[in-house]
Amino acid sequence: MITGSLYGLLRIIVVGPLAYLILIAILRVSGKRTLAKLNAFDFVVTVALGSTLATVLLSKDVPLLEGVLGFSVLAILQFIIAWVAQRAKPVEAAIKAEPRILLLDGRVDQAALLDERVTEDEIRSAVRKGGLGTLDRVAAVVLETDGSFSVIPADTAGDRSALPGDRRGNTPDPR
């Protein structure tokens, strides 16, 4: 039980590198977007690729060719959905979250924090990681579509054209 069968161990030694190399090849062909964590859909594809790789490696019931087909299907679906989302706003809205301003001009938006399930302590942590020691020096903290925080210092905010919504930071609520 501790070592498994010789067949199982040899299978992992042979199939593991092959599956890994094939996955790398598929990812190179499908482009950087396949591994980008730009939104929930991209994250799901990344996790599914890892899960498929693990299944191919550890399950004797899944032949390498079926695993390769699984990798390919995921990469192709991700490509198709991203391509359609670029061209159809309703599809884009369905699969992508909108960035959300959580702090503007040093003031925390409590309603946004509640909606996004973020705490003030998390905002303060993001500000500290951004190298700032006071909220007064922050033009905006944005919760990005991938769940990360962007901290824009007041002295580098410029005309604020990079902020979501209008330049005052009023983000349209997609819900």
TrEMBL record:
Q: Where is this region: Disordered?
A: 154-175
Compartments reported by the entry:
Cell membrane
Q: Which UniProt keywords apply?
A: Cell membrane, Membrane, Transmembrane, Transmembrane helix
Q: What are the residue boundaries of the YetF C-terminal domain, all occurrences included?
A: 88-156
- Give TM segment ranges: 6-27, 64-85
Is Cell membrane found in the keyword set?
Answer: yes
Topology relative to the membrane: Multi-pass membrane protein
> What are the Basic and acidic residues biased-composition ranges?
165-175
- On whether DNA repair is a keyword of this UniProt record, the answer is no
Q: A GO CC term?
A: plasma membrane
YetF-like N-terminal transmembrane domain location, by residue? 18-84
Q: Which domain of life is it from?
A: Bacteria
Q: Name one Pfam family in it.
A: YetF_N
Family recorded in the similarity comment: Belongs to the UPF0702 family.
Protein's name according to its UniProt entry: DUF421 domain-containing protein
| Originating species | Alterirhizorhabdus solaris
